[in-house]
């Protein structure tokens, strides 16, 4: 899937008020950013993707167009490793994007290689996103349309879809974000219509010097479908 809450996921790939996201506001000159998050665990859309992880990001944007790279490497060798590229466009509250996710969770999968794009021999997943930010709330529709997507019992692509409703607000001197995520049909996230993500996140910048502050964030996530519960802490560099 971007607040600094898990620089990719809580709002990032949802493309609604994102930080590493491709939904950069229109600029008259090219802008670029680079950074990294260190998180206590990698939770994405209510799914546990690994433990302590380093998640770098790099993006460039010009007049609403943007190209972003995002990655994740876990401290534990068994954790999911990931490299994503997102091409997006944003105008006022509207955003659209295409993301190429590449996962390599095991040595066996590495044998397929990054440049393997065969219909049945790839670790890439391609997702399309349409989103709109209403200010008080944002909504994003994300659908996998190609690559290594989930297939149903008949062997047909499920077009796994994740719908995110997000609401930013301020409380007690912190920047908060609430997210409700659901899947409308069987796919990667659940076996039928289900709520798969309930997240409440908060971010705060801690002043270190007069010119430098350290962004910290924390989030509590529940997945009603899997009965999972997670508490994540992280910092942004």
Any overview of this molecule?
Keywords: Signal. This is FrrB. The chain is an all-beta fold and 237 residues long. It has one domain: monomeric porin ompg (Porin, Beta Barrel), CATH 2.40.160.40. 2% of the residues lie in helices and 55% in strands. The chain has 1 helix and 14 strands, in the order E-E-E-E-E-E-E-H-E-E-E-E-E-E-E. A 12-stranded antiparallel β-barrel has the order 1-4-5-6-7-8-9-10-11-12-13-14. The chain has a two-stranded antiparallel ribbon with strand order 2-3. A hairpin with a 5-residue loop joins strand 12 and strand 13. The longest helix is centred in the middle third of the chain and has 4 residues. The protein is globular, with a radius of gyration of 17 Å. The two termini are 20 Å apart. The N terminus is likely disordered.
Q: Descriptors for this entry?
A:
Porin; globular; 14 strands; single chain; signal; two-stranded antiparallel ribbon; FrrB; twelve-stranded antiparallel β-barrel; 1 helix
């Amino acid at each position: 899937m971007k607040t600094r809450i898990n620089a990719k996921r809580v709002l990032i790939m949802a493309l609604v008020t994102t930080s590493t996201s491709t939904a950069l506001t229109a600029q008259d000159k090219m802008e670029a950013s680079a950074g990294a998050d260190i998180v206590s665990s990698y939770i994405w859309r209510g799914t546990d993707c690994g433990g302590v992880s380093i998640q770098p990001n790099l993006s460039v944007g010009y007049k609403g167009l943007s190209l972003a790279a995002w990655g994740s490497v876990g401290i534990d060798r068994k954790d999911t490793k990931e490299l994503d590229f997102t091409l997006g466009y944003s105008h006022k509250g509207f955003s659209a994007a295409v993301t190429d996710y590449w996962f390599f969770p095991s040595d066996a999968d590495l044998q397929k290689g990054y440049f393997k794009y065969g219909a049945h021999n790839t670790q890439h997943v391609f997702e399309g996103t349409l989103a709109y930010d209403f200010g008080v709330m944002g909504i994003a529709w994300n659908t996998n349309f190609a690559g290594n997507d989930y297939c149903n019992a008949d062997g047909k692509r499920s077009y796994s879809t994740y719908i995110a409703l997000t609401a930013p607000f301020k409380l007690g001197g912190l920047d908060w974000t609430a997210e409700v995520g659901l899947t409308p049909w069987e796919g990667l996230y659940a076996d039928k219509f289900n709520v798969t993500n309930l997240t409440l996140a908060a971010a705060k910048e801690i002043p270190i010097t007069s010119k430098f502050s350290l962004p910290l964030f924390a989030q509590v996530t529940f997945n009603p479908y899997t009965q999972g519960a997670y508490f994540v802490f992280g910092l942004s560099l």
